[in-house]
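subagent[fold] <- orchestrator: predict structure for attached chain, return tokens only, no commentary.
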Amino acid sequence: MNGSGVLFLGLRYLQRNRVKTLLLVAAFTLVWLLPAGIGLIVAKVEAQLRARAEGTPLLLGQAGSPLELVFNGLYFTKPQVATLPLREVDAVAETGFAEVIPIYARYSAGGYRIVGTSLDYFDFRRLGVKEGRQLLRLGECVVGAEVAENNGLKPGDAVISTPETLFDLAGVYPLKMTVVGVLAPTASPDDEAIFVDLKTAWIIEGLGHGHEDADKLGDEQKIAPAAPGDSVVRLNASVVEYNEITPGNSDGFHFHGDTADYPVTAAIVIPSDARDRALIKGRFTKAGGLQLISPAAEMDELFATVFSVQRFVLGLLLAIGIATLAIGALVFLLSYRLREEEFRHLRHLGADLATLRALVAFEAGFVILASLLASGVGLALIHFLAPQLIREMMG
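subagent[fold] -> orchestrator:
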């Protein structure tokens, strides 16, 4: 029997036993796909996290989990980290040993983190404005490339902050912010962030606010004078704080207390050289309940743990894979035994022993090649979906 005959009979057999064939292809696909898929995801996660961490010399934050501080200050996740007052950030800058960039990443808008920072952040991360302009006033924001693309945002549009609770008894209202710029894509967490200045972030928290001009309000919104001749205008609870900052009302926004006491979640510390780095670390590590960490070192510790777990999981998958391959070999052997009558008829029709073995080899080869092709498609899909998977894991 020639090769075309083996192909015809082999395909007819697989078609007749399609359920068995599909189960074998699925089992073998998992044998190839699971270890390779896990390795691919871990490699991509490591590459993305390490690139960001290695590009950030030091990170200052309140004492607590160093890893949570890294994820807040670099990737804008973990919004509930302990805060530190701005005066601690200013104290580092005043030493002259390093440039310091404050970060306040606590609130969000439509699922995207609102990051309060200074203009130095954009220079540090080399973030260019693709459309519009940079931040200039209170209530303005610059959005990352992915935020703009997913929501159809452009300069002149607006985004509204998401309140932490449905009913805020403290009277902190969502802030409507004007989009003044769209950043160029960078394939980093900056693409999924909404950037504002620190004062705008504090207004979102309710630390700063504005009211309507008291002299222009009606009598129903005022409280009667405490005594005759009292010239102080007192407003009742019906006067709502602004939830939008415009050129017409921006002068009416104010902050209570010293802004040096206002919170930030982290600060990027950029020493000019190794000497200044050593001086900064020696002076501020653990000082006043603070921690000054190296994000790259924290990533080293994280991935040392990840790789130890990965080796354990891959060992288990290897054992399962060997067992699956052994079961597959047993299925092929049993298939050969069950087809003895079929092969006897083929022998009577003139097929030799090599042809019969070729039919069994065709079935095995088809299953292996089909499973390799399916696993390749699966790996390509994982590669395509990896950024989204990484964002879900980090979120």
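orchestrator: received. Logging for downstream: The radius of gyration is 32 Å. Confidence is low (pLDDT under 50) at residues 220-224, 230-240.
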